[in-house]
Design a protein that fits this description.
The protein has 418 residues and is α/β, with parallel strands linked by helices. It has helices spanning 2-16, 44-56, 89-103, 105-109, 127-142, 152-158, 186-199, 243-250, 312-325, 374-387, 401-404; strands at residues 34-40, 62-65, 81-82, 120-124, 148-150, 174-178, 182-183, 203-205, 210-216, 219-225, 228-237, 257-266, 276-279, 284-288, 294-300, 334-344, 351-354, 360-364.
């Protein structure tokens, strides 16, 4: 009883003292003059890279530089879907590695990332959609990835609120279903990796924008920042949406385009949707958060740019598609809308690679699939940076594939924002 009273008084006290006596989750050190490795970008992929460099490879002194605040970019501007049901072997193995890391991430980081394996459903609306779904589902099974084919009556059992009557503009003919897929809490992923990286000795330096990459004799020597020059023999760049800008500082070009990607959230509802529903044909997807909000998104805006708003026509078409699938959502009010910036490669697959500059590495081009890859991306990128050679899981995602022609076309599996 005494403990319970203490807990109540402690909660009341902390509710009015503006967290003044709370310990910081990670340090805010001043940048040192030199590090063994500098990671540029404080999103999920950058934080994971720094964490695995420190814990898996014992690199030495690691600094993570973020121009704003931790998790203030795309990590906090996405819709949190996690899955691994990609078509081609190279993508499937990489995303499956990431999914397996997701399954133990809360325990590893000692931080609840709220990973919920509620399943991910990809709808088919045409005969060609269904052919593609069968092809991808069979490829998943051959790679040891869980995948099921659902018919309309089976879909209705899992998602009673969906209209599968067959008299809609895009009738639902079936779906693929990955039970191990789901969602996670994006902010918690950033906070968990940041706290764990800091505990492993990584210097997390916020409000530190990189303005130049210093080179000498074809090798990287460090970075220029708004807080002065910081030296390092290795620099790993993970800045989703702005990779081409940093590549220009390094003196080369990347085959990426940056596009706005929008999403929106509704007012809270009672539980009505306990899985993730996606549709490439109508370019819409929806899930329900733990707070009851509908999290809705679509594909990228067609134009290139670095804006974080996007065009209204995308939202209009997106909402129309969701309402057609779920008529009961027609009167739900939207609370807020936001946009992120995604960089897209010609083959809808990422670049995780060394560059023409010795000691300079880039991880970019994830398009709409970046969040789900967070742990796996950081794990293989840390290996690439530490060993100056790719891990077998990311060897196919080297930059030189755009010269050799060995592309990995994942447009079918990555054609909608998820």
């Amino acid at each position: 009883m005494k403990k319970d009273r203490y807990s109540v008084f402690s909660l009341a006290r902390n509710s009015v003292n503006y967290h003044q006596d709370w310990a910081e989750a990670w340090r805010s050190p001043e940048p040192a003059g030199e590090y063994d490795v500098i990671v540029v970008g404080g999103g999920g992929h950058g934080l994971a890279t720094a964490y695995y460099l420190a814990t898996e490879h014992n690199v030495g002194r690691v600094a993570l530089l973020e121009k704003g605040w931790i998790g203030g970019g795309n990590t906090g501007r996405n819709t949190t879907i996690v899955r691994s049901n990609y078509l081609w072997d190279e993508s499937a193995h990489l995303y499956e590695k990431s999914l397996k890391l997701w399954e133990g991430l809360s325990q590893e980081l000692n931080f609840n990332v709220m990973f919920s394996q509620r399943g991910v459903m990809n709808l088919g609306h045409t005969l060609q959609d269904m052919r593609d779904i069968y092809r991808r589902s069979n490829a998943n099974r051959l790679n040891g990835i869980d995948s099921e084919i659902l018919l309309p009556d089976q879909i209705k059992e899992i998602v009673p609120a969906m209209n599968v009557s067959g008299d809609t503009r895009y009738p639902v003919l079936g779906a693929s279903y990955q039970p191990r897929g789901g969602v996670a809490r994006h902010d918690a992923v950033a906070w968990g990796y940041a706290r764990a990286a800091d505990s492993s000795g990584v210097d997390i330096i916020q409000n530190c924008e990189v303005t130049g990459i210093r080179q000498e004799g074809g090798s990287v020597r460090g970075v220029e920042t708004n807080r002065g020059y910081i030296g390092a023999k290795k620099v790993a760049v993970v800045v989703a949406g702005h990779a081409s800008v940093l590549a220009e500082m390094g003196g080369f070009r990347l085959p990426v385009e940056s596009h706005p990607l929008q999403a929106l959230v509704s007012e809270p509802l009672k539980p009505v949707l306990d899985t993730v529903v996606m549709s490439n044909a109508v370019h819409g997807y929806v899930s329900q958060s733990d707070k009851g909000e509908l999290v809705i998104g679509a594909g990228i805006d067609a134009y290139t740019g670095y804006g974080q708003r996007g065009s209204f026509s995308i939202i209009e078409g997106n909402v129309a598609a969701i309402v057609e699938l779920f008529p009961i959502f027609s009167r739900v009010r939207m609370l807020r809308q936001w946009g992120g910036i995604v960089d897209v490669c010609p083959d809808a697959c990422p670049i995780i690679s060394k560059t023409p500059v010795n000691g300079l590495y880039f991880n970019c081009g994830w398009g709409t699939g970046g969040f789900k890859a967070t742990p796996g991306s950081g794990w293989v990128f840390a290996h690439t940076v530490a060993n100056d050679e790719p891990h077998p899981l990311n060897a196919a995602f080297e930059l030189d594939r755009f010269y050799s022609g060995a592309l990995i076309d994942e447009h079918g599996a990555a054609g909608v924002a998820h």
